[in-house]
């Protein structure tokens, strides 16, 4: 039986990540001014090109919200149900979803981030399943595939696999840009589910033991820091504790660069990190996975781009996490936007979880 799928793209999703804006809602022009390059279309093409031979009846929007993506993916038969205004806005996403529902689609697929997920959910609710191809900055909602290849698997099997109730999160981007995570549960969407292909929601750990574990990790990292070495420190409270233990100010939800006990860049974007690596080629990158989701790269730290990772060298990637976070995070994922680089990370990663303590965790790859 032919499956009918409605597809839409948020063309500006994720543009704020690499340039350090921590989100793109209302910031697309500023992202472009800083040199951001749209990448959501590429993410969508990666997924949809894997489905060009499948028996799917596609409904979509006119460019730049879908029809051009399907054509680039090699899908030449689709129905355009909605023509957006330019520049596109949240109202276009909602109107397109309503058109999909009127057409009787079996599944709504969107490419974007948390803001797009919220707009899709506003229009669709629980009438039909929804699925996100990840292209945003944070993606704390649990309605996304782990990467583009996993999204293709989920779309292909949506009529046969089960669905689960998955959290749609409303993240305050203004607070996030100022270094404060303010997120609330927006609702529960029906989402196709296959283990290791559908991502989980972010968990936040606040127990007293967590704070002690963060201190132990920070002490250990401080002891092994090398002189004349650039340390690129990713987002999160565990990584921020390292910078704070050095007596330096830390950017909780951004990327800092430290060398010889001094901050050489705060809340750095990709361009700044690449320039620093030209000046200081001896470098280490310290990141922590998102709790429960398990993403080491590609969620909330797009400033640490494939270019930055290759320049520093994957052998210089240091992953840290508290024991409680690791206990709730059975698998790790990487979704840098470069599938070849993601594979080079390997099938396991060592994760420092305490003072001179580490665990080896499995890394799951798709595609």
TrEMBL record:
The GO terms this record gives for MF are: kinase activity
For this UniProt record, the keywords arranged alphabetically read as follows: Kinase, Transferase
- One Pfam family name is NAD_kinase_C
Q: Which PANTHER family match?
A: ACETOIN CATABOLISM PROTEIN X, ATP-NAD KINASE-RELATED
Q: What is this protein called?
A: ATP-NAD kinase
Record organism:
Methanoculleus oceani
């Amino acid at each position: 039986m032919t499956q009918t799928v409605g597809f839409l793209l948020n063309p500006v999703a994720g543009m704020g990540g690499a340039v350090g804006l921590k989100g793109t809602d209302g910031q697309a022009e500023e992202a472009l001014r800083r040199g951001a390059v749209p990448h959501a279309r590429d993410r969508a093409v990666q997924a949809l090109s894997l489905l060009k031979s499948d028996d799917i009846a596609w409904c979509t929007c006119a460019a730049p919200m879908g029809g051009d993506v399907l054509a680039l993916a090699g899908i030449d038969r689709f129905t355009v149900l909605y023509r957006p205004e330019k520049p596109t806005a949240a109202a276009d996403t909602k109107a397109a979803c309503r058109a999909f529902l009127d057409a009787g689609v079996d599944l709504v697929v969107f490419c974007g981030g948390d803001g797009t997920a919220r707009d899709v959910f506003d229009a669709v609710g629980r009438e039909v399943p929804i699925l996100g191809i990840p292209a945003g900055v944070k993606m704390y909602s649990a309605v996304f595939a782990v990467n583009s290849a996993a999204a293709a698997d989920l779309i292909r099997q949506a009529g046969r696999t089960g669905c689960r109730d998955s959290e749609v999160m409303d993240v305050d981007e203004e607070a996030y840009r100022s270094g404060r995570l303010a997120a609330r549960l927006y609702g529960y969407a029906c989402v196709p589910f296959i283990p290791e292909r559908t991502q989980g929601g972010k968990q936040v750990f606040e127990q007293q033991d967590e704070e002690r574990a963060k201190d132990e990790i920070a002490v250990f990292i401080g002891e092994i820091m090398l002189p004349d070495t650039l340390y690129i420190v990713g987002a999160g409270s565990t990584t921020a504790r390292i910078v704070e233990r050095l007596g330096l100010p830390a950017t909780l939800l951004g990327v800092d660069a430290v060398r010889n006990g001094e901050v050489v860049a705060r809340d750095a974007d990709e361009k700044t990190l690449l320039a620093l690596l030209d000046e200081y080629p001896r470098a280490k990158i310290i990141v922590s996975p998102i709790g429960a989701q398990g993403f080491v790269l590609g969620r909330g730290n797009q400033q640490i781009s494939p270019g930055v990772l290759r320049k520093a060298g994957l052998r210089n990637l240091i992953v840290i996490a508290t024991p409680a976070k690791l206990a709730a995070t059975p698998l790790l994922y990487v979704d840098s936007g470069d599938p070849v680089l993601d594979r080079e990370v390997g099938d396991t990663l060592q994760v420092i979880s305490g003072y001179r303590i580490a665990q080896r965790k499995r890394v799951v790859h798709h595609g």
